[in-house]
Design brief:
This protein is mostly beta strands. It has one helix and 42 strands. The protein folds into three domains: 3-143, 7 Propeller (Methylamine Dehydrogenase, Chain H), CATH 2.130.10; 149-442, YVTN repeat-like/Quinoprotein amine dehydrogenase (Methylamine Dehydrogenase, Chain H), CATH 2.130.10; 447-480, no CATH class. 2% of the residues lie in helices and 52% in strands. A hairpin with a 4-residue loop joins strand 13 (127-132) and strand 14 (137-143). The longest helix has 9 residues, at 461-469.
């Protein structure tokens, strides 16, 4: 959003305008008189709640501001940014006090301890840091390990998979899991989407760092980087190659679908039909249309040649998180949710008619994949479950526990026999598409992978649980 909304009891909502970019974080001062907002325009603004006007602008960060938080007494404001720093501000003087430098990646969240003398910060570098705000020193580092895989894709020959994750890495896996995965470094923030070209020569990835990378799959070297020339801080989400391998499409935080001609690196067209984040895009099998799903609850069909809006499919009450074409291109499935329930719709791709509404049990549907025959649809939800649907009967015919946390992406193998899923637990799981049996799990080594703690003494249950989550194993129960 371009402003912050403040609601007073018994009065209408007011829109506060002043930022030149999307607002990422807002928080009220302890006394309720001032509102702080952090923005993609790299500033923090202080708003007078009664007068509904800006009382100060705090500038200094060199990248978007992700988080703002007040000290308990309201005298100090902390801001965290994509520039990997935390700034402390004297609120009364609207002036800079000091900057905290130790994180090596984006600062995502901040929280003051109750006494106000210590500040906690969480970062994409996998650490939580404890800061003494008087001295400006880091007093403790808590090392974590949590990688979300946001997307997974099969190579055209079905022997490899690629994934994109919150650790900024694009990973190439051998399907059989017998060799260590290869890591592609290039994104400076979350890698969100990944896709292979139809001939298998190129691998593309999209990230929240305004970058779409194209990699040579033989040398694993980056050969091209595509960016939004009009916005410095665009975040790209889902990405997809056209069936003929000529074009790349991506959804963005800037409320746009962007399509590039890969051979020249130029943007062919930009679609601006959804006033919200566009999470996933999908080409029709014949390459003549492109579908996009937005957080506003709509699905838009675009003409692939010129980006003209062909149809808008409306009916979702909440966000649309995924779209998937049936193999023959006659139907389009869309999934999403909000307001406490998941939504899974199947549309006629030619008329826009809603053909089927499937009763999803998860709160939000994040991923969809069709069977090769088009009779079965598999959904992945926020509850970590996979559900197989008989589309014509509208019934769920089998369910599998897939991931801890959300299932972020689903893809059917080129031979139509296997299904790959990835999610919040950092794992890729390969399933028998027809029977639903788990065939294999692919996961990078965690910090304590395969460490045997079965004979360890003095560990509490909480410590054992933490070590297990980081890869340690227990062959037999032990007594403390």
């Amino acid at each position: 959003m371009q402003g912050a909304q403040v609601v007073h009891p018994g009065t209408a909502t007011r829109l506060l305008t002043g930022h030149s970019g999307p607002v990422w974080s807002v928080t009220f001062a302890p006394d309720g008189r001032t509102l702080a907002s952090g923005s993609f325009d790299r500033t923090v603004k202080l708003w007078d709640v009664e007068r509904l006007e800006v009382r100060g602008t705090l500038a200094g960060h060199t990248a978007p501001v992700n988080a703002v938080v007040w000290s308990p007494d309201g005298s100090l404001l902390a801001s965290g940014s994509r520039d990997q720093t935390i700034w402390l501000w004297d609120v009364e003087r609207s002036s800079y006090r000091m900057a905290l430098h130790r994180h090596t990646a984006v600062v995502q969240d901040l929280a003051f301890m109750p006494g106000g003398r210590s500040l906690l910060s969480g970062s994409e570098d996998g650490t939580i840091r404890v800061w003494d705000v008087e001295r400006g020193q880091c007093t403790r580092v808590i090392q974590g390990y949590a990688v979300t895989l946001y997307d997974v894709a099969w190579s055209p020959d079905g022997t490899r998979l690629a994934s994109a994750g919150s650790d900024t890495l694009v990973t190439i896996w051998e399907r059989d899991g017998r060799t260590p995965p290869r890591l592609l470094h290039g994104h400076s923030w979350i890698a969100y989407g990944v896709a292979w070209s139809s001939d298998g020569r190129w691998l593309s990835s999209s990230g929240l760092d305004n970058a779409v990378h194209v990699w040579d799959t033989t040398t694993e070297a980056g050969v091209q980087t595509l960016r939004d020339p009009n916005h410095v801080y665009t975040s790209f989400f889902g990405i997809a190659w056209s069936p003929d391998g000529r074009f790349l499409a991506a959804g963005s935080y800037q409320q746009e679908v962007q399509v590039w001609e890969v051979s020249t690196g130029t943007r062919r067209w930009v679609g601006r039909g959804q006033p919200t984040t566009i999470r996933r895009v999908a080409w029709s099998p014949d390459g003549t249309r492109l579908a996009s799903g937005g957080y506003d609850g709509s699905v838009i069909l675009w003409e692939a040649d010129n980006g003209k809006q062909q149809d808008r499919l409306q009916g979702h009450r909440g966000m649309v998180m995924c779209v998937a074409w049936s193999p023959d291109g006659t139907r389009l499935a869309s999934g999403g949710g909000g307001r406490g329930s998941g939504e899974l719709f199947v549309w006629c791709a030619h008329s826009g008619e809603l053909l089927h509404t499937l009763s999803e049990l998860s709160e939000i549907v994040y991923a969809l994949a069709w069977s090769p025959t088009g009779t079965m649809l598999v959904s992945g939800g926020s509850d970590g479950m996979l559900r197989w649907w008989d589309v014509e009967r509208g019934k769920c015919v089998q369910t599998r526990r897939a991931h801890q946390g959300t299932v972020q992406s689903l893809k059917v193998s080129p031979d139509g026999r296997s299904l790959a899923s990835c999610g919040d637990d950092g794992a890729i799981r390969i399933w028998d598409l027809e029977g639903g049996d788990l065939l294999r799990t692919l996961r990078r080594d965690r910090p304590y992978e395969r460490l045997d703690i079965s004979g360890a003494k003095g560990l509490t249950q909480a410590q054992r649980a933490s070590l297990s989550a980081l890869g340690a194993i227990e062959d037999a129960p032990t007594r403390s």
